[in-house]
Structures are given as structure tokens and as C-alpha cells.
Amino acid sequence: MGRTVFRGGKVFDGTGTPLADADVVIDGGTIVEVGTGLDGDEAVECAGKAVLPGLFDCHVHVTGRYEDDELTIQHRPFSYNFFLIPEILRQTIALGITTVRDAGGADLGLKKAVDDGVLVGPRMQISITMLSQTGGHNDEWLPSGGRSAGWIPYHGFPDGVCDGVEGSRLKVREVIRAGADVIKIASSGGFFSPSDDPRHPHFAQDELDEIVRTAADLDRWVMSHAHGPEGIKRAVRAGVRSIEHGTYLDQECAELMVERGTWLVPTLTAGDTTEELANDPKLAPEIREKFVGLGRPEFDAMRLAAEAGVKVAMGTDCPVAPHGWNLNELAHMANNGFTPEQALVAATSSAAELMGVRDRLGTLEPGKIADVVVVDGDPFDFATLKDRIEQVWKDGARIV
Ligand SMILES: [Zn+2]
Predict the structure, then answer these.
(1) The whole model's pTM is what?
(2) Is CB count within 10 Å lower at the N or C end of the chain?
């Protein structure tokens, strides 16, 4: 295959050191050299461009689309949904996102199809489905007696509802059997569910403790959807790896997270559609009402977390906002407490650390997997970044 040199660009290596003039050389699937005056068998001329590590989205749902409402999904053949996924994967990797953590929806077959090259897309860690209590964020029960079409169980995709220490332990084992790399839970209510309140804590402390313990025995971390402060604190005390959303995070939460080393994945992009959803006639009234007058409390949470020194990794919760909007997250972080450099670190080396793959990914350093993004112009001008992603390389192969 030989050496490919990305020559003459500004390099952001992902560690947080400023942009520097440098060349990056990859050989096969590996980065072999970063420095000046390097050569290779083939060259990618990068004058006027920036060279970045492959980006991460640590909270995404690659199996759903913003434009698909409940009624549409209810009336669509079940398997049709699977055929929409390749386009979502393509859109995501076209943004330079070469690694994702799927927060619910992606199953083992999808992950393997990408790993084996059947589908083009970002490599993924998957959680299969989200564990929630009866009546919680992933309970699809409807007052009519039917069930919501969002998360229909099928072979390899178990139902996520569980209660009690025994029940929660069994459910963790069940999703790991199905292929979960990480356990996703909801330790508070949510917005897109009919009979719960985002501010309420979900799961009792003993249930959360048992979930984290059971997962740890099987070498998995736990990521917890949590909006309200009590749901955040319980999950942090139980020892989860990350809090997802953290919408009503307060000072006490932030201090506890710093003390315990808990990550925050703020998913600020999800709020980009709040106003539209508040007026969406296709949403059930009890869901729509949760968005009315909501504002952007997640921005306050992000600022508080940044100030307190909470570890932050980038995640978007797309398709709560449409797939393709993922890089909005960088701008939101940079507008709410982070410098632009910190925002890009959150999307590269910090994200890799959260996901436990920092030894292989997240920076442009010799020995790392050759995920490389070439950007035309300034990589910190986030407002226009998505239109300036020129090349995306994954595992040393050019994808875009
Ligand atoms: Zn989510």
C-alpha cells in the first residue's frame, strides 16, 4: 500500500496543542509519522487546509431519522427501517465522524456489517437498547393499549424495561448477550416518552448500583441518560461512566462529577429542534407540551460543567436534531464555556478516552489508527465547518 503523506497543512493533533505546520504520514491503517519535511509514496496536498484526527460522536442513534414521526413508522413495514440506515451512516462519516457510540437502536448485525465493510460508516460501540424502569423513558406502553413504534423488540434487540435489583441485573446480562459494548440506562425521565417527567429520578439507588456492578463484572461501562439533578446524582454515585444530556445539572452535580471523574456528554444539538417540536402537530400532546417554554437549559448546564472542570466529550443525540447537524455541537460548546480548541478536543481525544479507545484513536500520533480528516480552511470556524470537510479517511482508506 505504501506511505501516504498529508503534506503542508496545519495539524490539529487532538491533544489540545495549537494548530501547527506539519505533515502526517500513514502507512496501511496506521499513522507512522507526524512532523515537518516528511515524504511518502503518495501525497495529499494540504496547503491552506487543516488536518484533524477522525471525529467522534459519543451519543447518536444511527437507526432513527428526525423526519420520521410515530404514524409514519407505525404504517411502514418493519424491515424498511433497516434500509434507511446506510444513508444515515454515510451522512455521519461525511462530516468527518469516524467513530460513534450508539445510544440505543443499533444492533450487533449493523455493527458487524460496518466492521466487515458491508456498509460504509463510522465504527461503533453499541448499547442495543436503553434500560429504563416501568413507565420510564424506554417504556413504549401507550394508554390505548398499543405500544409506540420507536423501539420494537426483535431477535437480538430485547425490550429495555426492567425493575428491581434482580430484574435490572438480568437485563444488563441480556443486552450484553445481544452484543452491547456499553450499557445505556435512563436514570431520569425523558422528553420523547408519553408518561414520564424529565425531572424525576428513575431507578432506585440499589437498582443503579446493581446495574453498574453487573456491567463492570462483564467489563462494560454504563452511560446514563439523565436530565434532573437527582437522577444525575444517583447515577454518578452508582459509578456510571458518563451522564448523557445533564440538562438540569446543578453545582452539586458538577462537584460530584468532578470528584468521581464522571464524564458529561451534553448533547446540546438536541435542543436545536425544541421550538419546532413544541409546535409539531404530529407529536402526541403530552410529549409536545414538554417542549413548550423549555428554552435552552442545557446551555446553562454546559457552562456550569465547563467552569467546574467536569470532563466533557462530544455527543449530539442526532436524530433529535437531523443527522447531518452533528457539528453544530462544536459551535454550541464553544459558545457555552469552552474555547474552540477545547470543543475539538472533546470531539477527539476526550471522546476516545470516554470510550476507552484512546490508545488507538482520537489523536494524530504515530501508532494510532489512521483516521484522518482534511478540512479546507480554519477548523475552528464551526459555523461553516460541515461544508468544508474535504476528505475523510478511516483505517487508512479514503471514504470521502
Ligand atoms: Zn439519545
Answers:
(1) 0.97
(2) N
| Rounded-to-integer distance, Cα 28 and Cα 360, Å | 14
Preceding amide of 201 cis, omega within 30 = no
CA of 230 to the centre of ligand 1 (A): 19
Helices 229-238 and 251-260 pack at an angle, to 10 degrees, of: 10
CA of 42 to the centre of ligand 1 (A): 41
Angle of helix 164-177 relative to helix 205-217, nearest 10 degrees, comes to 30
Q: Please identify every residue whose CB atom is under 5 Å from ligand 1, which is an ion.
A: 103, 317
Give the Å distance between the CA of 87 and the centre of ligand 1: 19
Q: In angstroms, what is the span from residue 28 Cα to ligand 1's centroid? A: 35
pLDDT in tens, 123-141: 999 999 999 999 999 999 9
User: Is the pLDDT score of 18 beyond 80?
Assistant: yes
CA 59 to ligand 1 centroid distance, Å: 6
pLDDT tens string 75-129: 999 999 999 999 999 999 999 999 999 999 999 999 999 999 999 999 999 999 9
What is the separation, in whole angstroms, between the first and last Cα of the chain? 18
| Å from CA of 227 to ligand 1 middle | 12
CA–CA dist 180, 167 (Å, integer) = 17
CA-CA distance, 122 to 98, in Å (whole number)?
4
